[in-house]
Write a structure and sequence with these properties.
The chain is about 25% helix and about 25% strand. It contains eight helices and 15 strands. Strands 1, 4, 5, 6, 7, 8, 9, 10, 11 and 12 form a ten-stranded mixed sheet that branches. A three-stranded mixed sheet has the order 13-15-14, covered by helices on one side. The N and C termini lie far apart (about 60 Å).
């Protein structure tokens, strides 16, 4: 079975201050506009990915249409002014040294949206690990429409307990071309990127195909790719692609650029990934009735009930609900 993860045509800025080029994902610091204001001051007139994305802190701004128009304009200007080096049919091996010193390893390429379905109970090769909030998609589509470049922040996880697919590339990086090596803004650590050669790409894809071998695992549906981060970015790419197909039935989309989305593959078992509980407080409720309903919905036994707290696994994240008894 061919893997849904493929080499992509990747653009890398050249002759650019990479620390100013690289910025945090657009859905961060949504309640702290001062962070983004400070970042705009730091970037100034320098070329930066900040000029190509819409920080979600501005989604409700009255000038959002002007911001989106300016983003599209800047994308075209960057393309026309030879800002980028194009790496055709490529994958990039990435080593991200986090602020805690741990190294997160990943591979950049593109994912086939035909193999992705974010709906509940999906059995597709690529699946969401949290509920997709449909209301979050339209504003993102407005940015994607008319955009000549794609800058998503999508991390997809694979379940490689033996660490034989992504991690093994660290031993081969001496044979790769180093294409970037710089500190990230705001004490976010350091990042290196290495260009993989054709043999490395083939071996990587073969490893993914073996990991998702349905016959080997005697499963009809194998979850090979699980969303780790950027769930709504990928859902936006999928929705935009499906909308294009519906509105242009006369066009062959079998190899259309919108069929794919740029992403990073990371191993679920990476020591750099730490999954922490998400806590929720529930006030003024009938505790017994709430716990009974939750147990029933999740199919848990009586032995797992508790009137103090209730833990369960949802996708890849553990959630704990602390319940405040009615007075």
């Amino acid at each position: 079975m061919p893997t849904a993860f493929k080499p992509a045509d990747i653009l890398i800025p050249k002759n650019t201050d990479m620390k100013k080029w690289s910025v945090i994902a657009c859905d961060q610091y949504t309640s702290e506009p001062e962070y983004w204001n400070k970042l705009y001051e730091l970037i100034g007139d320098s070329k930066s990915a900040l000029n190509l994305v819409l920080p979600e802190v501005y989604l409700e701004s009255p000038d959002i249409d002007k911001r989106i128009e300016e983003i599209h304009k800047t994308m075209n200007e960057y393309l026309e002014s030879d800002v980028f080096e194009e790496l055709k049919d490529s994958m990039i091996y990435v080593e991200r040294t986090q602020s805690n010193g741990k190294i997160r390893r990943g591979v950049i390429g593109m994912i086939d949206l035909e193999e992705y379905d974010y709906s509940k109970n999906s059995q597709s090769e690529i699946r969401a690990t949290e509920a997709t909030v449909i209301e979050r998609i339209p504003p993102r589509i407005r940015v994607r429409e008319g955009a000549s470049l794609e800058l998503p922040h999508i991390m997809i996880l694979i379940d490689d307990e033996n660490k034989s697919i992504v991690e093994n590339l660290s031993y081969l990086k001496k044979n790769m071309r180093l294409i970037y090596d710089f500190d990230l803004y705001g004490g976010s650590g350091h990042i290196n990127g290495y260009l993989m050669n054709g043999k490395m790409i083939n071996n990587f894809q073969n490893g993914l195909e073996n990991l998702g071998n349905k016959e080997k695992f005697k499963e009809k549906y194998v979850l090979l790719y699980a969303m780790g981060d950027g769930n709504h970015s990928l859902a936006t790419a999928k929705t935009y692609y499906e909308n294009l197909k519906k509105s242009h039935p006369e066009i062959d989309f079998s190899n259309h650029p919108s069929r794919y989305a740029l992403c990073e593959i990371v191993n679920l078992h990476s020591s750099a990934l730490e999954f922490e509980a998400i806590h929720r407080l529930v006030y003024n409720t009938d505790v017994s009735n709430l716990i009974s309903s939750m147990n029933k919905a999740l199919g848990l036994s009586n032995k797992e009930k508790s009137d103090q707290c209730f833990s369960y696994f949802n996708g890849i994240s553990e959630h704990t609900v602390y319940i405040h008894k009615k007075t």
